[in-house]
Amino acid sequence: MPSFYVEDTCALKGDRKIIGVVDRTWRDVDSNPYYEDDDLLQHEKVSKSAQKAFVETGLPPRGHVLVSFTEPYSGCSLVPEDDLVLVDRAFAIGDVVKRSSSDVLSGTIVGTSISCTLDPVNSESIFNDEQRSAVPLTQGPLLDIAGEELKLLEDHHEGDHLIYQDWVGVVTDVFEEVTVRLSNGSVVVVENHDELDVPVAPEGLGALSHGKSLAKRLKQRLQREDSSFENLRPGEVLYPGQKVITKKGNLRRGQWKFGAYDSSIEPIAIVVQVRLLGIEVVWMTPNVVSPNQNPGLEPPRTLDLDVLESGQITWYDLERLPQQPSSRLPGAAQGLDVAAGNYMRFLDPAGAAVKYNGTRDVTARGTFRRIPRRATQGYDMNVFRVRETKTRIDVQWQDLSTSQEEAMSVVPYLNVDDHDVWPGEIVVLKETEEIQRPPGWIETDNDVFEEVAVPKQVGVVQRTDPGERVAHVRWFSDPKVEILGESRSVLMPGSILGQLSTEVEEVSFYEIATYPALTPRRGDLALIVSQSAYVDHSGAVARRSRSNASATSAFQSLTTGYQTLLNYLRRTRGGGTSIEHTSGAPEPSIQSPNNASGESVLLSSTISQVRDIDWFGEIVDLGLDGLLTVRLGALSEVRDIRVPAERVIAIVSGDDASSYEASDSKDEGVWTDESMSIGSQENIYDSDEVMEDIVEYEGGARLDADGGDEMWTTDDEDAKSTSDTSMSDDVAADDLSSSEPSLPQKQQQTDTLVSATPMEMSWNETKPNEISLLSFPSMPAQFQILDTPAPIDHHFLNEAVELSANLMRRIRKEHRIMQSSLPDGTFVRTWDSRLDLLRVLIVGPRNTPYELAPFVMDFHFGSDFPTAPPGSYFHSWTNGIGRINPNLYEEGKICLSLLGTWPGDEKNEGWSAKQSSMLQIIVSLMGLVLVKEPYYNEAGFDVLVGTEESRIPSIHYSERAYVMAKGFIIHALQHPVGGLEDVIIWLYLLPDGPQLLRHVIAESEAVDNGGMLTEGQGPSEGSSSTVMKASSHMTPLSSGALKMLRKHVLMLKGTLHKNLNHSAG
């Protein structure tokens, strides 16, 4: 049984004529909105409870997909995958695919071609029977029609790109007029086409009993549309031949072309023409890349028909080809608009009528009987509906091989690994990158970026071995490159990559990175910087590089036009404010010119180019020599050029569709819910309902702290209590800093480092000999209040809060719980001068990729605590190569429902002012974040647990986390962690401690050798620490992971030897 993916074309097994497109699948990991659609049908094999659950969550049950059926069969339904037949699979140039979901090797689509089956919508007799269905049967379908022979009904649509007054824009809305013909032959342009409705099935037809098949219900719906107008829906897609009904006033106030209004005629009509009147445009950037350019102000957002027909607009056509395309390129994406359910015309109707005339060798492909205009009052009724398509693709694979494939023979590469790379991509060696944050360069609404990355080693990927996670790279000899923004989205104009060396080096996937600024995708639309402008800017970059000067003046030195361009790229790529776009705004008052004859106005025949556009094109190839092939599709004669990558600025990606819409969220980093009561007017201290003094694992078992059922109490109540064995509120801070529970009391807790939850599977399930830090008498206090100043690198140092009596009482209570109940492997520090601050160290749990590595988090009890959870920050020491865990962001965000940064559910509850605690957060971080298979912690990935397609990605994620965790040990030993210096030294170096550094080195070397330490073998000669076996993956580490691991082991050994020499000295 084939798996189905979003945008797949499929058919019902019971009736192959009923075609649909997959809208959602159970594999979708993105958050789905709730589904509300009165047109949702009930499939006989889908229970009502499953249907209801889908409506509430928006996510199909496992093994089901949501299918939208193409016209004439309207509606959508949840359908079991085994009740569907795959018809075609949609891809675009630049998409990444695999031959199967479990494959490691992936490839990039470099060309597509589409053929299709067409059903004629109308026949020559359409005007002779006004009440019949708009689906003709007088001529059969046309088979295997090439997509490049077809076009959509109108010349311009949403998403089209244009150049006007030296600005590049994208159409975000179109304004049209609709002409209809009534049963008496009269023709009118309706006043408001939004008031045109199309008939649908009577109420209840989509909710018949389970015993009646979906195919029958869809057929009944179609049949009943022919004679029933009991239910209507807005005519979202109108086409010549579409049957509509409207209010009589909409006709009476219209513009009459033939005849006059007659109130006795029913307002039931057939659409004969849909005509473009104007467009709304989002202007992206002016032409700032050609010499001597001084573009004017941004053009108007709305362009009317006069402008469209003025000849001043150049439309960019992605399907135009050069007369002599490059021999290594497959051509282009052909038939981009051809998809099941779309309405099309022939580009050359006369030629098509001759070609498909029912004679010669094309007889089997059908006959096109062209409807003459004289039979339809001058209107073009030659319209076809695409029944189904067949797509072929050209693929370049990661190993540099190429192939032609049927689209259905490959699958989309879902959830692409951030570390995967492909031939032709430009990469940066992360360890050579220098980050500059100019002190005077403060981010505002008007400037762009708060940091500049200056990589010293940049190269081009030649080929890769994705199984071994290594890439073969040629390096540029002396790059002078400046990249703006945290997302590395914009290359500073004038950056120079330089000469490419001939030598090829094998590097690990995990030590290189690709940036949008350096590696656009095939299919991206881009500006081409002219040679003269490039040279002018490159001088400034080279001078800054030679003098090692800050790039502070870089942005300020650019022209206003360049600043406009970079601001646009920041909004669409750098996480800034999206382009404002007013959706649902009223259409402008665009008047239709008189056209009494009713003939179609073919805009394309009247538009001429003002001049050739040689500065804007489509990226069609990434060269192995660092040159990009750009197709100049706006030229009168299309041609391909090869340009250095630094002279190409991609401004439109295939993934940028959402960039043209306004962002509704001002703060996407924090999730809130009513259950958290953040900002509630209720004062938790004044509430009659007191908080239970309990600690609960998130999604796990309750831990009773401080005597089980004891409640949160006031100071007076504490003084009277005899059952409270924890520390009293009267204990002074300086006494608390030196006190700790006796060893026997602490040994009542778990005596081993906390292991991960049972659901993770990618690590060896054989539990190695454990080590309990609690068994060491020399262990530093797990919780301690220090009398030293808070460290200057504490993230919340500058967020001081006034400690009211109530807040202080709650903080002391939190301290008491942590004083007695911290799990093994956790350490917490606070400061008597800043009791609102905490610093937490968690030693990575055994049997996870994070084992024995230090993870440091800062927390802050703000003025709204405990109504709101504490502020949190993770110290990420990954050097910009990506997150070590899906919940732990490089910028410091900790994604956890208890912290209000992740939506809670039955298993993961949100923060409760009366029941949650700081200890619960710490335990959740150990048990729910630092787990065996962190891959599945990614948002929505829980649905992939146990699937074959996620097995390899999970292994790769875990091995990368395992290697990165060793880097955390290096960082902690080389950069003292304020407040925890003694703990780090004790953990890794001191002879009376666990000497974790020796264990990490020995176990890493065992993993490098592909085996495990034998029982009883010590990690190093002379070590007095407890013996442990080395953990291992189910499969050996890849070559790329081993490369990084060996580098880390060398550094760890150096640290160990330095410590031994220091001790000996």
Structural write-up:
There is one protein chain. This protein is of the alpha+beta class and 1065 residues long. Among the domains are: 1-89, SH3 type barrels; 166-202 and 213-311, no CATH class; 417-440 and 450-542 and 613-655, no CATH class; 783-1011 and 1034-1063, Ubiquitin Conjugating Enzyme, CATH 3.10.110. The chain is 18% helix and 23% strand. It holds the Pfam family tSH3-B_UBE2O.
Which key phrases capture this entry?
1065 residues; alpha+beta; eight-stranded antiparallel β-sheet; 23% strand; 18% helix; SH3 type barrels; single chain; elongated; 18 helices
Q: Architecture of one domain, CATH level 2?
A: Roll
Largest sheet: 8 strands, antiparallel
**What is the count of helical runs?**
18
What is the CA–CA distance across the termini? 70 Å
Portion in beta strands? 15-25%
Structural class designation: alpha+beta
Relevant CATH superfamily of one domain: Ubiquitin Conjugating Enzyme
CATH topology name of one domain: Ubiquitin Conjugating Enzyme
CATH class of one domain: Alpha Beta
General shape: elongated
Q: What's the helical proportion of residues?
A: 10-25%
How many beta-strand segments? Answer: 45
Radius of gyration: 33 Å
Low-confidence stretches: 130-138, 201-212, 222-230, 440-448, 546-555, 575-610, 657-769, 1011-1030
Q: What's the pLDDT, averaged over the residues? A: 77
